[in-house]
Amino acid sequence: MSRDPSLNGMIYFEAVARHGRVARAADDLKVSPSAVSQQIKLLEEMLGVSLFRRDKRQLSLTLEGEQLFMAVTSAFGLLRDARQTVSRQRDSHQLIVRIMPSFAVRWLGPRLAGFISQNPEWDLRIDASPDPSNFEREVVDFDIRYSPTPWDGLHCEVVLSDYVLPLCSPSYRLKLREEHGPDDREMLQNARLIDSVKAVIQWDNWLAGHRIVRSFKSAALRFDRSSMALQQAVNDVGVVLESTTLATQELLDGSLVPLVPELGAVNFPAYWIVSPSRHRSRKLVQVFRNWIIEEAEEHEKTISAFLQSHDIAVNNIPDAFNNISFQK
């Protein structure tokens, strides 16, 4: 009856393969060279193959040894990741969240002080990054991601719907009306457009959905962060097609206004909590998730009131744009 190799044998083999010498492996493992040699001999006998070529004092891997080394290295990496995860989860006050940068700065950031004051003992890490987590290889509790659709293989829960519409400064809107009159389409045809290149809804699709043809008198400006695009609109540079979630403060203080309220706002489920299902059982994940949902509900009330006060109709994605395929 065949036996599986011992874990000690694999540990000793990996060390010898990595160092190329028994003595160095023994120093690394804090054991005697004879103990290492004995484990390698037993492993080779058990497997029925030679794992090393012996050339004077230097050892090199045989083909079988190389195959085993690759497998052992991969397995040890998985074990290290699992150990880190288990060790971190023993600490009941540590939470790691990855969030889209503009959402983290503009929406979550101003609200965090309230959460921290309620939970001063928490070790909270916010990783503001556009790159989604690899939950099998990274120690992250959950992501908040931006898209109109959820992700396969992960538990997804929508946090916040978004409303997107053309925004500009009051002075830029006044300038357009003085130059081109109050006609919405003519204003948009001649406005300088500011693109948030990673946004779900892009100007080309939005204009096509409303059957507006650009005059191309002004070059477009493109930014890979919504915060930068919004700031340029505040600075009277042009019109940005952006999120009311990210522009809430500017809309409430009047530094940004809807350019064409009559054309409405596009609504879609934009921000999602995303994680493996197993992470949902952690108490800290549940507490933070509940807090975000409560904050999102209050935010939705504020934005809904703003849209109603400006008589802005709300349209869902495929109906408003005749099934145009939006960029994620």
Automatic annotation (TrEMBL):
Keywords carried by this UniProt record: DNA-binding, Transcription, Transcription regulation
UniProt key word Transcription: yes
InterPro entries: LysR-type_TF_proteobact-type (IPR058163), LysR_HTH_N (IPR000847), LysR_subst-bd (IPR005119), WH-like_DNA-bd_sf (IPR036388), WH_DNA-bd_sf (IPR036390)
Domain HTH lysR-type intervals: 5-62
GO molecular function: DNA-binding transcription factor activity; sequence-specific DNA binding
GO biological process terms held by the UniProt record: DNA-templated transcription
Family to which this protein belongs: Belongs to the LysR transcriptional regulatory family.
Name of the protein in question: DNA-binding transcriptional regulator, LysR family
